[in-house]
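#struct-pred
JK: can someone run the complex with flavin mononucleotide? inputs below
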Amino acid sequence: MLILYGSKYGTSQRYAEEFARLVGESAHPVREKLAPPQDGVTVFFGAVYVGKVHGLKRAVRLAARGECLFAVVTVGFAVADESYRKQLEASVRAACPERLLPRLKQYRLRGRLNEPALKGGDKFLLRLLHTAAEKTPASEQTPEMRALLAAPADLPDLAPLKELKEDIARDISSDRTRP
Ligand SMILES: Cc1cc2nc3c(=O)[nH]c(=O)nc-3n(C[C@H](O)[C@H](O)[C@H](O)COP(=O)(O)O)c2cc1C
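RT: done, structure tokens with the ligand placed:
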């Protein structure tokens, strides 16, 4: 299993490393030069920034060399909102070539906001997004705006990774039994 992460401030990396520990593998930054997974399975943890998944393009390229499941775990604020989830899933699908789609499965984990750690551009962008969200009446706020205003600043909760491991194991075995 090839475990990858696309992370700017460490949350997705932390999730990927804990997942790797649970399955007895190691996690790699998506930019690393890597051999294809021996069992054909690729699991990618990618942080969401302004609707885009960090490192997704490269993960898609690496996963295209495998033959089994391509698990994309998006890490962002908006985990609970159904319409946002659909929007994000559609954008991940759009980044994949057609032949990868039958092997693609998507999962979500909650991101966190470590504001003091943000670097210049991200700090500025976050401030802009925050101001825009605050100025928008509640009834007109987009799911991203609502999620941003309710963003947690705590440490990543690693407990959901056990369930994620089971979900991925189930999806791997159903993928392998496909004709
Ligand atoms: C400038 C900025 C833009 C963001 N945009 C989104 C977004 O569009 N959707 C979302 O769900 N989360 C968004 N987030 C939240 C990040 O995905 C979250 O902080 C995540 O934990 C970052 O992961 P990382 O530490 O691995 O980089 C944004 C965060 C920042 C700082």
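RT: quick notes.
The pocket of flavin mononucleotide is lined by residues 7-13, 47-51, 75-78, 111-113, 118, 122, 125-126, 144, 147 (CB under 6 Å).
DSSP finds six helices and six strands in the chain.
JK: thanks, will look after standup
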